[in-house]
Amino acid sequence: DVENLKNMLYKKTRLEDTFGVNMLAVSDGRPETLGLKAIIEHHVDFQFELTTRKYKTLLQKELDKKEIQEGLIKACDVIDLIIEILRGSSSIKDAKECLIYGRTENIRFKTKVSKKMASLLRFTERQAMAILEMRLYKLIGLEIEALQKEHEETLKNIASYEDILNNYDSMADVIIKELDAFKKEYARKRRTAIENAEEAVYEEKKMEEQEVVFLMDRFGYAKTVDASVYERNKEAADAENRYVLHCMNTGRLCVFTQNGKMHQIKVQDVPYGRFRDKGQPIDNISNYNSREEQIIFLCDGECFEGRKFLLATRQGMIKKVDGSEFMVTKRTIAATKLAEGDELAAVCEMTEEGNVVLATEGGYFLRFPAADVPEKKKGAVGVRGIRLVKQDFLEHVYVFADGVEVKTVYKEKEVTLNRLKTAKRDTQGTKTRI
């Protein structure tokens, strides 16, 4: 019993606790009482501001590094000219001005060509200082290759940092990764220990077993009433309710829906009361959602033991499933596997003997022996039961024993199913004349 277990946890543990919090904070330089939403918004804004400052600093460092690297790479291409400038200079100042502004007045050159080329140099101040401080071993081939690789890495970093600063989603991803890293580094397992384990053991209350009748109207409101109450109001109950089911108050109800799911409901969770009580929406006591699902079949969970069930889909796929496969404890399971665009059309109990009739919306009826339906697991798609014409779909399934007269109505015309010609499974069937 989930509710009783939750109540026990509330009572014995600090599953829920109440305490006061002073939500006064300094917001934009002013003291202000903030709600939870406002505090989270300010914290998120602070994280973005912090990350923006961080990556602006990193971007500036990479841009400075790029400037120096480009200067060194360019210097390697004209290294002979730079050596000539350094040897012909009388001071560092003259060499620096030559590299930055192309001034050659105070420098001795071997040739006029070198002097003319030197006058064209336009390094930045940072690049000029890096060239003057460069050591000779940097001219080794491997060092030059390493410099070029480092320059490529710098360009990648610049592109990455600019993307983070210019795109909200990219910055959000970075913040999330950093927070995940903090969690991984500093998180620790819960240290709570159950000291009074005997008190934590929960036993469900034993209730007196009795027969009840489950009633659900066309609006989805469900309730249970005593069997004697139902007998006194049988005519009204059958007329006003879509589903009427005899069951035990300790049992479970199974609801099959068109999307191939089976929902289980404890009978004791269904409101028990008087016949004229409104009841409760079945959505509130199960995982069933009336807005998205449609009930195909509803039964007592006790009916599965030792029985077989026929499952059929709108696209004409059928199979026989052992009832034991539906005897589970989960509240919701996949009752069958459906092909794309297919839906569950019918679920009904069947035996090895007897007949199966598949009826389509277009008026085709196919009768074949129940033994032709193969037994499959609930996770299987099944086999084709009837060949459908274009735009047609399976609408009804009938299972009946030999010698039993079964009639149905199709577009105001009565059809006697036991008089239909017996054919083979996976054929088109007979079209009813209107």
Describe the structure.
This protein is an alpha+beta fold and 434 residues long. The protein has 3 domains: 33-78 and 121-183, Topoisomerase, domain 3, CATH 1.10.268; 207-304, no CATH class; 306-324 and 339-434, 6 Propeller (Neuraminidase), CATH 2.120.10.90. It is built from 11 helices and 20 strands. It has helices at 2-12, 36-77, 79-88, 92-101, 112-119, 125-133, 141-166, 168-186, 197-200, 227-232, 234-240, and strands at 24-27, 30-33, 211-217, 221-226, 241-248, 252-257, 261-266, 280-281, 295-300, 308-313, 317-322, 332-334, 344-350, 355-360, 364-369, 383-384, 394-400, 407-410, 413-416, 430-431. The strands form 6 sheets. The chain has a 4-stranded antiparallel β-sheet with strand order 5-3-4-8. Strand 6 and strand 7 (261-266) form a beta hairpin. The chain is elongated, with a radius of gyration of 41 Å. The mean pLDDT is 88.
